[in-house]
Amino acid sequence: MPGSSQSVDRFVRASFYTKNLIEGNIKENEALAGVLSIMRNAAQPFVNNSADEEDPNTSITQYTTLSDQEKGVFYFAASRSPFVVWIDLNKISFSQNASENKMGLTLEFEENGSSIKGHPFASGNAIDYLVEKKTFSFLEANMESVSA
């Protein structure tokens, strides 16, 4: 099994462990923990933030996300935090009014990304930490420059 932190080695390990996940009748939290453990194993550690002159495209994994498509729950784990937070998307009203005003919901993190602003030990359901903010504007597409 390859053991370096190069992306190819990391993804070979992830592929191997994915094929060996426990199958069958397991609890939801065990399934999430299994997938998260594989993703953390494939993550680029943050042991050194300086750019490697020999491999300038290597950078630390800043966060990991999981999504439960059946239940509509989105999980987020910042690499600099031992905690996992989640948002139950079914508990959010995605109203037409919000999109017309170009407002969106976000989690604001401390500058180093280690925790939710004002909540250094936040874990679990983070719906109460969502903040409404103006979203970014998309650039208009220049269709004249697109060739058929």
From TrEMBL:
InterPro entries: CBAH/NAAA_C, Ntn_hydrolases_N, Peptidase_C59. One of its GO terms (molecular function) is hydrolase activity. Keywords: Hydrolase. Residues 1-97 form the Choloylglycine hydrolase/NAAA C-terminal domain. SUPFAM superfamilies: N-terminal nucleophile aminohydrolases (Ntn hydrolases) (SSF56235). Belongs to the peptidase C59 family. This is Choloylglycine hydrolase/NAAA C-terminal domain-containing protein. It comes from Flavobacterium salmonis.
